[in-house]
Design brief:
Layout lengths: L1 E8 L9 H15 L6 E5 L2 E5 L6 H8 L5 E11 L2 H11 L4 E9 L8 H15 L3 E3 L6 E7 L4 E5 L3 E2 L11 E5 L5 H11 L3 E8 L6 H18 L3 E6 L1 H10 L5 H19 L4 E3 L12 H8 L7 E2 L7 H11 L2 H4 L21 H8 L4 H9 L3 E4 L1
Parallel strand pairs: 5-6, 5-7, 10-11, 10-13, 11-12, 13-14
Antiparallel strand pairs: 1-3, 1-4, 2-3, 4-8, 4-9, 7-8, 12-15
Helix pairs in contact: 3-4, 5-6, 5-10, 7-8, 8-9, 8-13
The chain binds adenosine-5'-triphosphate and magnesium ion.
């Protein structure tokens, strides 16, 4: 009797002749997520089995697997020889000691002497005989004994189908560059896009020494947490200190955020192209704050020359985003109180509905190309 984890995958079966490619990618992602933990992964028709791990690592492994996109569900169970006596022993091991139960059998091996109905009743009968505190309730049991008789002479016995992360295997939908601040929203945006199969590099802008080093550490931690979902990521850190000083010195202060956003987008597009990203991803949500009006987005979007900008949170309310950030485990880090570069030199009354013509007039006062090039020169790359 061996403890195993059964992994069932999600949407991949939709992909027709690309299926082989998807499955290989999925296996690579599974291996990445379990790197450094003793285990073996075996493919079986329509599922994967994690075997040969230390039982004490079970929770650690399932925590890792719960973050792998493409997993539809998984189960922790026992693998035994496909013989009734062995299946019975495994069923006893996964069963509760009292309460109601039902047996639910799936028989892939059609040569097994009993069919699934017969296995259900034979096994149910034996369970009742062995423990007087158990009774059968097929409609609302307190636990289920699932039996899966495989083609290769093995049977899997387990209680639960645990819902997986869903989505598509990371890497199956190209690569994006996520603009990650220290806030709540951008990690959630990255998670959503990774869920659709996009691998991510990240880009963070800081204004050191106006922002402190803890602000950067916080973003590194957020990116590290995100990387558990995105199968690793590279964080690019760029200084916009000089850009902000120049805007502060030469332009109408009300345009600080608007102008800074345009610089961020220009730099992002250049860095995206350098790292092979096919789009830019932001955590913007329509009308959430002053800079996220449609006019603000128009202004920052208009400097982008080639790449699409994905804003997966555009239609979400803040409390929906907060819920998601709690669910993915980034919330606690996001609410640490370090200053973001956008709050440096922030005017009392930032312009909320910037007219593009006015923005351009302010921007004329700056040597945009030089400042962009200079900022890109400060890039620091951190692999997570
Ligand atoms: P977040 O919670 O992600 O910070 P927010 O609601 O605070 O979002 P803004 O600060 O206006 O909104 O930022 C909007 C988006 O712009 C962010 O989600 C992020 O994608 C990008 N962004 C803002 N500041 C930075 C930064 N310092 N570095 C990288 N990207 C940034
Ligand atoms: Mg922010």
């Amino acid at each position: 009797m061996e403890k195993v984890i059964i992994i069932r995958y999600a949407e991949m079966h939709l992909k027709g002749k690309n299926r082989g490619w998807f499955e290989r990618l999925f296996s690579v992602n599974l291996e990445k997520s379990l790197k450094g933990i003793r285990h073996e992964i075996r493919r079986q028709s329509g599922r994967y089995l994690v075997e040969n791990f230390n039982e004490s690592d079970t929770d650690f492994i399932t925590d890792k697997l719960s973050k792998v996109f493409g997993i539809h569900s998984y189960s922790v169970g026992l693998k035994v020889k496909a013989e009734m006596e062995e299946i019975f022993k495994a069923a006893q091991a996964v069963a509760g000691s009292y309460g109601t139960f039902k047996v639910d059998t799936h028989r892939a091996d059609k040569t097994f002497p009993l069919n699934s109905m017969q296995i259900n009743s034979e096994l149910g009968g034996r369970m009742l005989e062995a423990n007087a505190n158990l009774s059968v309730d097929v409609h609302n049991p307190s636990f289920v004994i699932n039996v899966d008789v495989r083609e290769n002479g093995a049977a899997l016995v387990f209680n639960e189908f645990i819902k997986g992360a869903g989505g598509m295997p990371v890497g199956s939908s190209g690569k994006g560059l996520l603009l990650i601040s220290g806030g709540i929203d951008s990690p959630v945006a990255g998670h959503m896009i990774a869920k659709r199969g996009m691998s991510l590099d990240c880009l963070h802008f800081h204004s050191y020494p106006y922002t402190n080093l803890q602000a950067k550490e916080k973003v590194i931690e957020l990116t590290r947490k995100l990387s558990e979902y995105s199968c690793g990521t590279k964080l690019n850190v760029v200084s916009v200190t000089h850009i902000q000083e120049e805007i502060h010195k030469k332009c109408n202060g009300e345009y600080m955020v608007t102008l800074l956003r345009r610089f961020m987008m220009r730099i992002a597009e250049k860095i995206a192209e350098k790292c092979g990203a096919q789009c830019i991803v932001t955590g913007e949500s329509l009308a959430q704050v002053a800079s996220q009006t449609i006019e603000g987005m128009t202004s920052s979007n208009s400097v982008i020359e080639r790449l699409p900008v994905l804003r997966p949170l555009c239609g979400f309310d803040k409390n929906e985003i907060i819920e998601r950030s709690k669910a993915i485990g980034t919330y606690e880090t996001s609410i640490e109180p370090y200053e973001d570069c956008c709050t440096v030199f922030l005017p009392k009354h930032p312009v909320t509905r910037p007219k593009l013509a006015d923005v351009l007039k302010e921007e004329e006062k700056l040597d945009v190309d030089f400042l962009v090039k200079e900022a890109i020169g400060t890039v620091e790359e951190i692999n997570l």
